Structure prediction request, 105 residues.
Amino acid sequence: MSLSNFTEKTNPRKEGRPLDDFPVRMGRVTKDKEGNPVLINPQGKAYAINEKIVRVWELLNGKNRPEDVISGLSSTYSLDQMRENEVQAEIFQMIKKLKSVNLAS
Prediction:
């Protein structure tokens, strides 16, 4: 399963996403034979991903809220305010997906 293409358009605040949620990454990151990043959950299932998802996963340290993750990505990728607003739903969806495959709690 690839985590690189989940871009479902949703409004996380309308979904009732709590602002006090502090996700924690689980599993580990490694590289495949071609050098591409792979996340492996605690059950040993591997997921082909991209560097952006690695960065999101790395920011899930139990101290960052989803909004902090978005801010961290904004500084890493030099997103302007307009672009930051565009990716907010995507980041919330990534975190939700990571949780669904036991790569975050």
